[in-house]
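hi! just following up on the protien thing from before. the input was this:
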Amino acid sequence: MNRLAHETSPYLVQHAHNPVDWFPWNEEALEKSRTENKPIFLSIGYSACHWCHVMERECFENDTIADFLNAHFVSIKVDREERPDLDDTYMAAVVAVTGNGGWPMSVFLTPELKPFFGGTYFPPEDRHGMPGFLNVLKHLANLWATEKDPVLESAAGLAAHVAAQKSVQGGEYAGQLNAELFPQAVTAIERSFEPAHGGWSGAPKFPASGLIRFLLRANRRLYSPSARRMAEFTLDRMAEGGMRDQLGGGFHRYSVDAKWLVPHFEKMLYDNAQLSMAYLEAFQCIGKSRYQWVARQILDETIEEMRAPGGGFFSSLDADSPGGEGMYYVWTKEEIDTALGAEDARLFCEVYGVRADGNFTSHEPYHVRQNVLHLARPWPEAAAREGLSEEELEARLKPMRQVLKKIRAHRVRPSTDDKIITSWNGLMISSFARAAQILDEPAYAQAATEAARSLRARMESAGGLMRCYRGDTARVPGFLDDYMALANAFVDIYECTFDMEWLDAAIQLAEEAIRLFWNEDEGLFYLAAVSHGNPVVRAMPRFDNAEPSGNSMGTLLLPRLAQFTGKADFEDKARRILEGHAGMMGKVPQALPVMLCAADFIIGPVTRITVAGEAVAGDTRALLHSAHAPFVPNRVVVLKEADGRNRVPAAFQDPQAKVDGKATAYVCVGEQCGLPVTDPESLLAQLKD
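and the predicted 3d structure came back as:
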């Protein structure tokens, strides 16, 4: 066993038995490189990554390759989910060298930690036009031995390029922060929309939750049929496709084809958090009951498959399982016929596109005659084809799915990355809290609160907010996105429970984030604190990728906190970030969809809803449900219990009280306030106006 046996990351521990003399990223490894004047081989990946496993089997378990690495390099293994700052920096170098990126990331550094060569997956020998890893190692070792000065010069140039790219001044992105952004953004989004299957690319196809959430806001603000059509069509096609686990309910990471049919089979917590939120908001905005059903399926599977004992949520489920990638999820027609019987199997196979010869092709031999379950046609059309209502079709199919799910449970599950990442948990806690509000589902509020309490307990034991936890161990301090995602989650829990401890905790995290990460000159947050010690550049994340950037989440958080606290500084910082990116938001909205959602809030108007009544009373709960039910994304909600029994936020000190002894709602939109109302329908009417 090598040094990785003592690490907490499941990804690192997976490599503990490799013959490679692995180090984690630490001072011992860096000092060895400097002392012995050896270049560093830095390998970055993550537990659910299929090609990371392939390269491990082919290269890192190969004694010849391991011996050469051990003789000529200092080998360091990093979990990208633990160190997003290192991943961000060195991925920029790999993209600069090769024109593309991905994982596993393979990058070679000087002892001064400057990159001089990089790539992603390498096969062990030359294959399909790709250089073999051993040949790459021999070539680089020879260069280091015979032409070190040109290598160092190249490394200095590449490091300078990355530093310049990551610290670019933001003036070129700036613009006017006003409502004209929104029609410009919708037009730009429409230009790249893929009309055949939805989404904004061909193959591979990734979910674009942030973009969909912005389009829902644009539809509300602009009454835009185009915005609604793009969002609705994409949500429908994703829910019908094989990228959604039709038995479990959650979503895989992306589709390798353009039709959402064949997924790359890992499941990531951050994807399912964002997708559940998108479907919840679409249910509010568009009204399709199937959207709230999809959201419930995601959340229920998260509780079932990814919930840690005591609260909190695990990071991911692997793509690989015994037999090959995705074999846990795929089916032959014979398996379904045997499990369901002839008549039920006929209906199931018709609806879910199952064929005797399989419904997808793959270069992997183990996928012959396998089927990815997906809706072969839209749900209403499938019901009509069978002469059933949609409800009747669901009633027929639900027990069949349960039978197959029980059979699937006896297969060997893909492995779980059981570390708890703070930012991803923040995203999922927010989704559970919002689902509790929108669907009036107390179990989701409990899941959100238990996860949040678990994280707060870990913070206290670790002496502050950490990036990730596994068991009782945490080693990496929190990054910007950890602070912002968790603070947003605490605000969402406050609007579920109206317990001021959560709002206080959110304010505390926001203030700590400003102290650790804010760059006053640039008007932007850094990704990492000084203590993280990034060796090349202290980057400021601007753009949303698979996860929203910390700056985007900050622009969502700070204006909300300003509404509750009355602190102008919170909103001023968010406004500076948004103004610094307003030009790009209108021109390239795909890069900044979450900032566009924040711009919609800060431009306003904001709806402020105060409910006066007892928390446990039925009439109070009914008003609160009406406050959360419609799609009013730019709103804040406060409960004032009678006789001041609960503490309320600083900006909600007006003497609003019950009318005629009944729970009463007060709605203000911007500077205009409506009449107090005591029945839920009247409150709904005010909010819809």
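The mean pLDDT is 95.
The radius of gyration is 26 Å.
cheers
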